[in-house]
Specification:
The protein is about 80% helix and about 0% strand. By secondary structure, the chain is mostly helical. The chain folds into 2 domains: about 70 residues; about 90 residues, Tetratricopeptide repeat domain (Serine Threonine Protein Phosphatase 5, Tetratricopeptide repeat, Alpha Horseshoe), CATH 1.25.40. Helix 4 packs antiparallel against helix 5 and helix 6 packs antiparallel against helix 7. The relative contact order is 0.07.
Length: about 160
């Protein structure tokens, strides 16, 4: 991740490909999925969005099969790429899949941002009623998370903000 962030893409690619080989050989499929996400990041950094989309679409099947929570990340990254290229319908479907994956894996910390992003996308698509439902759902998820927070300081801080 550091190499990608510093735009040292060739050394990053080499490390990622080595990790892919070892992960597959050792049947560590969660690591394999993570390495595929990083490989998509390299493609994005190289401005090869079509290659990144292909990598992520292939990774969806792998992540589904190994039951990892990384499936949410795969869908979210794919949705962002679709949205950036103007494929709003495909982005909408991918965001819905990301939200469903987060819900299935009880990984609701990612859900509010995903739901809000989908709501904004629905507004762009002039689907205002669906957008309003999603805005309310995001609020309910955040309120539910706060209601189950044991630390009173977090609850008080969130009420002030």
């Amino acid at each position: 991740m550091t190499l990608i962030h510093e735009h040292n893409l060739e050394p990053a690619s080499t490390l990622i490909k080595d990790d892919l080989t070892h992960s597959q050989t050792d049947e560590r499929y969660i690591n394999f999925t993570q390495a595929r996400l990083l490989l998509a990041d390299v493609a994005i950094a190289k401005r090869r969005e079509n290659a990144a989309i292909r990598i992520l679409e292939e990774t969806v099947l792998m992540a589904k099969n190994n039951g990892t929570r990384l499936l949410t990340d795969v869908y979210a990254k794919l949705a962002n790429l679709y949205r950036n290229r103007g494929s709003l319908g495909q982005a909408s479907v991918a965001y819905v899949s990301a939200i469903a994956s987060a819900d299935q894996n009880r990984d609701m910390y990612l859900a509010p941002d995903l739901i809000l992003t989908l709501a904004r996308l629905k507004r762009e698509l002039h689907q205002d009623e669906e957008a309003e439902v999603l805005f309310r759902r995001a609020t309910e998820v955040v309120e539910g998370m706060l209601a189950h927070t044991a630390d009173v300081r977090i609850q008080v801080f969130s009420l002030k903000g």
